[in-house]
């Protein structure tokens, strides 16, 4: 059965001379075709995840592929039973994925792409170290066994983590294999390692989602679920909606076990963030949750509802 909403996760590093001029036409086209989600535009390219009717997604993707350098724009599609996003955001940014390293050029300096079908062989090599470039809450719900977890709160923290740990990680002949959800963070993290003088740097082409799509379950080395930045929250190894829900207070995934904790209150707190809220904030969150529930009961969209980027 074909579900009514199609999602499209996409990115392309390219060189836009005037990103601001692109914003209006892209936003207008999305609104015309009832496409929601987030698109980020910068001088270095475009990145985002959108969802909507299949024909609308097709029209927007076709237009994006007419932009300079986006002819081969890579897109990962999925289906959803309900609208995964509550609003449309087309934003101008300094970077389409924020690392805070101004001189990196992923177009020129990214590491060697490794197809999903070849990934297992690379990461099984004894001279290969495997680094998960995602943030701590993403790693917590699933990763490749043996992967190094930098325990970063933000991708901006990755350069400092690597510089602090380089001496214990990198030796002569070390191969560094890196991965992330859809591939975009590794475009920058591998370029960063190369700028730091690391020669043999590889990354999983298309990221975890591409690996789960291309590698049969019988051969897969993936363990757990994969966090995604839409209302599905996480996906299973067969790319079906996972078991996690989103804490609306801290924007982190909450497992089935964590939802049995007395510290979990839907829409208000989870075990990770309960101690961070005072009574006043808890009351505001409770009121927002009540308003969202009323809007759903009326079949409306609550204007305050949003999903983290």
Task: Name the descriptors.
oxidoreductase; TrhO; five-stranded mixed sheet; 21% strand; transferase activity; alpha/beta; 3 domains; oxidoreductase activity, acting on paired donors, with incorporation or reduction of molecular oxygen; tRNA uridine(34) hydroxylase; globular; 309 residues; Oxidized Rhodanese, domain 1; four-stranded parallel sheet; disordered C terminus; Alpha-Beta Plaits; 15 strands; single chain
How is this structure best described in words?
With 309 residues, the protein is of the alpha/beta class. It folds into 3 domains: 5-92, Alpha-Beta Plaits (2-Layer Sandwich), CATH 3.30.70; 112-224, Oxidized Rhodanese, domain 1; 246-308, no CATH class. Helix content is 30%, strand content 21%. The chain contains 9 helices and 15 strands. The protein has helices at residues 19-32, 54-64, 106-109, 116-123, 136-139, 158-169, 184-195, 207-214, 279-297; strands spanning 5-13, 36-42, 45-52, 74-80, 88-92, 112-114, 128-132, 142-143, 175-179, 201-204, 223-224, 226-227, 234-235, 245-246, 253-254. A hairpin with a 6-residue loop joins strand 14 and strand 15. It is globular. The protein starts with a strand and ends in a 12-residue tail after the last helix. One of its GO terms (molecular function) is transferase activity. Its EC number is 1.14.-.-. One of its GO terms (biological process) is tRNA modification. This is tRNA uridine(34) hydroxylase.
